[in-house]
Design a protein that fits this description.
Shape: elongated
Number of strands: 3
Order of helices and strands: HHEHHHHEE
Structural class: mainly alpha
Strand order of the largest sheet: 1-2-3
Distance between the termini: 51 Å
Largest sheet: 3 strands, antiparallel
Length: 189
């Protein structure tokens, strides 16, 4: 199995390589913990902003957005509970910790795609969250993975646009005072 983090080869382990591997894994452990801690804020922020926007008169698919917040809370609980297992897997840390990091980024991307879809599609303000996650991925992962996630963002947004354009998934336009703020809708239905 390919390791997403390019660590020194364990077979030809020299003291320098062993030290480098420990430093990389230690830093990754800290950053993964930081990522989990920050993610606890995401569900309350999603719910608060959604309720505030709804109260201000914006019309959008509120139950779906709340569902996305619950999804984030659920998978962050799983990551939090499994972090200890990954931390204590000293022999498999070379493989487990990097894949644990990649899994978190993938789940966060899935969340952003859901938020984009349920808050106006390609015109959604949630599209900008991809920028933050590309930055986070570039901090946590090697360049080839950062590039992969950047390409995934662009390709995913193109896919969302095509799926909504051809009606394979219903679009969820956002309205304010009866006027659509997204290109998919024109009036409140």
């Amino acid at each position: 199995m390919v390791n997403p983090i390019e660590l020194p080869d364990k077979v030809a382990d020299t003291p320098t390589q062993s030290r480098r591997r420990r430093i990389i894994l230690g830093e990754l452990r800290k950053r993964v913990g930081w990522f989990i801690q920050w993610r606890w804020w995401v569900p309350p922020v999603i719910v608060s902003c959604s309720l505030l926007a709804h109260t201000a008169g914006f019309v959008f698919h509120l139950p779906a957005i709340i569902g996305v917040a619950i999804f984030v809370l659920a998978y962050n609980i799983l990551f939090y509970l499994n972090r200890h297992r990954v931390d204590t897997a000293t022999q498999d840390a070379d493989r487990a910790l990097p894949w644990f990091t990649v899994a978190q980024v993938i789940f966060d991307y899935a969340t952003i795609f859901l938020l984009v879809h349920f808050s106006g599609g390609t015109a959604s303000p949630a599209v900008f969250f991809f920028i933050f996650h590309i930055i986070f991925a570039s901090i946590l992962l090697p360049p080839k993975w950062s590039d992969t996630f950047a390409i995934l963002s662009a390709a995913g947004m193109a896919l969302v646009a095509l799926i909504e354009h051809f009606g394979l998934l219903p679009s969820h336009p956002v309205f304010f005072e009866g006027v659509s703020l997204t290109p998919q809708g024109t009036t409140i239905q």
